[in-house]
Amino acid sequence: MKTIKMKLLLSLGLIAFIVLFGTLGYIVIEGWNALDSLYMTIITIASVGFKEVHDLSSGGRIFTIILIISGAGTILFTLNTGAKFVLEGELQDILGRKRLEKQIKDLKGHYIICGYGRMGKIICKELRGSGVEFIIIEKMPNLIQEREDIILLEGDATQDEVLREAGIEKAKGLISVLPTDAENLYVVLTARGLKPDLTIVARAGEEGSEQKLLRAGADRVVSPYHIGGLRIAHTVVKPAVVDFIE
């Protein structure tokens, strides 16, 4: 996409250069005024077939041939680049970005979900079912299939600017369920620094990470493996209690 943008800017620059080149050429070769020279350049590049502003000299005709060839090539290059710009989704990305910015701007008292893996999907499903507003920050949004009912921000949740873009100043809470404890720890530290009164819940994978995350500023720390192990043990030892809770 960056290559297409550069080509589009290049083609627009070439058109401006051709117009300037043609205008100056007619002024120098034919001695016309700036308006007549500009008008002749435009109708020549556009190939509209209008009559010349004034009769051309031999030098003017040769210059016009060069201008037609270079202008036609530039126009074709611009049209080709513009078609790629639209067809390859760059225009849709721009419009989508504007829509995302508006959605984030309208959020208030929402939750920020950092990571949309297996746990993130379950969390979002429950929040959606409870009518809670939330936004997801994910590094690799191209791996996400369902996007209909979610606000998704591409980026690294450990970065200050990404959390600010997600509206952390207006958020009610943050849930960090990134793949590693180090990433979750960094998110907790960053989020707590940006908003001291934010409710933060973090996921802990390794033993001993709970205390580190709590010291970093998390209000609650959940260890899926610890909870899962307890649940399995209780299912064997106290099946009646588990059935009652369910």
Helix and strand arrangement:
Blueprint: H1 2-30, H2 34-46, H3 58-87, H4 90-106, E1 111-114, H5 118-129, E2 134-138, E3 152-154, H6 160-165, E4 173-176, H7 181-194, E5 199-203, H8 209-216, E6 220-222, H9 224-237, H10 239-245
Parallel strand pairs: 1-2, 1-4, 2-3, 4-5, 5-6
Describe the structure.
- This protein has 2 domains: 2-87, Orthogonal Bundle (Helix Hairpins), CATH 1.10.287.70; 101-245, 3-Layer(aba) Sandwich (Rossmann fold), CATH 3.40.50.
- Helix content is 61%, strand content 10%.
- The protein has helices at residues 2-30, 34-46, 58-87, 90-106, 118-129, 160-165, 181-194, 209-216, 224-237, 239-245, and strands at 111-114, 134-138, 152-154, 173-176, 199-203, 220-222.
- Strands 3-2-1-4-5-6 form a 6-stranded parallel β-sheet, with helices on both faces.
- Helix 8 (209-216) links the parallel strand 5 (199-203) and strand 6 (220-222).
- Helix 1 (2-30) packs across helix 2 (34-46), helix 7 runs parallel beside helix 8 and helix 9 packs across helix 10 (239-245).
- The radius of gyration is 31 Å and the shape is rod-shaped.
Question: What does this entry show, briefly?
Answer:
With 246 residues, the protein is α/β, with parallel strands linked by helices. Helix content is 61%, strand content 10%. Helix 8 (209-216) links the parallel strand 5 (199-203) and strand 6 (220-222).
